[in-house]
Amino acid sequence: MRTNRLQLLSCVPPALLVAAVLAAQADAASAPIRRLPDGKPDISGYYMTDAGGANYGLEAREYEFLTPASRGHIVDPPDGKLPYLPWARAEKNERALPHRGYDDPTAHCFVAGVPRSMYVPAPLQILQPPGYVVILHERMSYRTIPLDGRAHLPDNIRLWQGDSVGHWEGDTLVVDTRNLNGKTWLNEYGDVVSHAETVVERFIPVDADTVTYRATITDPLVYSRPWTIEMPLQRQPEELLEVACHEDNADLQHLKEVRDAYRAQQAKEKRP
Amino acid sequence: MSDANRRTIVWATLGALIATWITMPAIAHHSFSAEYDQNKPINMTGTVTSLKWSNPHGWLYMDVVGTDGKTVNWAFELTSTNALIRAGWKRDDVPPGSRLRIEGFQARNTGPVAFASQIWLETGRLLFQVSPPVTLAPPGAH
C-alpha cells in the first residue's frame, strides 16, 4: 500500500497534489468530529502540524539565512514572549550562534522531547487502541499514553520523551507529561528547558480533520511563570516514512568542526 | 554503452524530473545556518558523479573544474530524503553524468562541501529551489 501510494505521489505534480489535499480539507472543514463507538472523539490518523516555524523559534521572528521564520506560537503570556529568567535568556541567545549548533540534541539524532516532537517538520500518526492514545512521530520517537488514571513513574526515572498519562475532559484529550530529562532543546533556535520541565497538552478536536494542539510548559528553573503555545494539527493522507537518522549524519562532523574552530580561537585569544 | 546512449538516458531521466521540480523550506534535523556560511556563496557547474540517497539528508556529488584547471569532487547537501520523496524525487532521478549548475553556500569549516539552495539543468531549467530563495552568487564563484 505504501509503495503504491508513493509511486502514485511521484507521478503527480506537487501543485496538483497540494490543491487536491486543500480541496479535501475544505470539504471536511464543516464536517463534525469523528467519534469512536464509546462516544469519545476519534482523532486517530496521520497529521502534519501547521507549525509555522515553531522548530525555529516559539517567539515570532523573521527569516534569517537558511532558517525559516516563525509566526509566533505563544498565546500566554499575551505579549507572545517567553518569560525567561535572565540566565536562561542568555543561554538561549548563545545557542543561536553557529558554534552551538553541534549542541542541539536533534543534530545528534536524539529524539526531540515534549513538546518539540509535535512540531518538528515531519508528520505524526495518532492511534487509539482501547485504554491508550499512542503518538508515532516520524522523527524516530513515540509516546504511549495510558488513559486509566495511573500515577507517573517515580521522580528518579528520567526520559527523553518523559512519562505521559492522559484523560478526557469532555471532547478534549488532556496529556500530562513529567519525568523529562532536561537535555532537549525546544527548537533549533535554542529555547531552553530543564529537568524541572512539566507539560500539560490539550488536543481539542475542531472538525473531522483538524485538532487544536495546546501545550502549557512549566519549568521554574528556566521561566518565571508557566506559558502556553498553540497550533493546529491537520489530518493528511500521507503515511509515515522511515528515518534512519544515524545512517549518514555527516552534518554532525561539520558542526563539530565549527565548534572546535570557535573553541580554538577562544583559547588563542586568552593566551598571554 | 555508447556515450550517445548514455546521454540519451541521462536526458530522458532528467526530463521526467522536470515535471516535479520542487521549492521547499530548508528542512533538516539540525541548523543549516550553523553549518553553512552565508558569506561563502557558490555557483558551480559540473558533472554528477553520484546521488547518495541517505538519511538524514541526501547528498549530491559533482566533479567541478576549478579556475586552476583541477577537478574537485564537491558534496552538496540536499534536504531530508523523505522531503525529497514526498516532492516526487527518486533515487535514480539524477544519474551520474548529468550536467548541473548548483548555487548554494559552502560549509563553514570543511573542504568542498556546500548546501545546494538551487539546482539547475545546464539548459537553464530549475530542478530544486529552497524557499524562500537566498542570495545568488555570480557564475563560477567558489
Q: Concise description?
A:
The complex is a heterodimer of chains A (272) and B (142). Chain A is built from four helices and ten strands; from the N terminus they run ααββαββββββββα.
Topology:
The complex is a heterodimer of chains A (272) and B (142).
Chain A: H1 2-11, H2 14-28, E1 45-49, E2 74-76, H3 86-95, E3 124-127, E4 132-137, E5 141-146, E6 163-169, E7 172-178, E8 198-207, E9 210-218, E10 227-235, H4 250-270
Antiparallel strand pairs in A: 1-3, 1-10, 2-10, 3-4, 4-5, 6-7, 7-8, 8-9, 9-10
Chain B: H1 3-18, E1 22-24, H2 32-35, E2 36-52, E3 57-65, E4 71-80, H3 81-86, E5 99-107, E6 113-121, E7 126-130
Parallel strand pairs in B: 1-7, 4-6
Antiparallel strand pairs in B: 2-3, 2-5, 3-4, 5-6, 6-7
What is the subunit organization of this protein?
heterodimer
Number of helices of chain A: 4
CATH H level, superfamily name of the largest domain in chain A: Calycin beta-barrel core domain
User: How does the major sheet of chain B shape up?
Assistant: 5 strands, mixed, barrel
Helical amount among residues of chain B, as a percent range?
A: 10-25%
Instruction: Give the CATH superfamily of chain B.
Output: Nucleic acid-binding proteins
Total count of helical runs of at least 4 residues of chain B: 3
Number of domains of chain A: 2
In the predicted model, the low-confidence regions of chain A spanning at least 5 consecutive residues are 1-20
What's the CATH C level of chain B? Mainly Beta
Order of helices and strands of chain A: HHEEHEEEEEEEEH
Question: What is the H/E string of chain B?
Answer: HEHEEEHEEE
Name the poorly predicted regions of chain B: none
Shape summary of chain A: globular
Question: Major beta sheet of chain A, specifics?
Answer: 10 strands, antiparallel
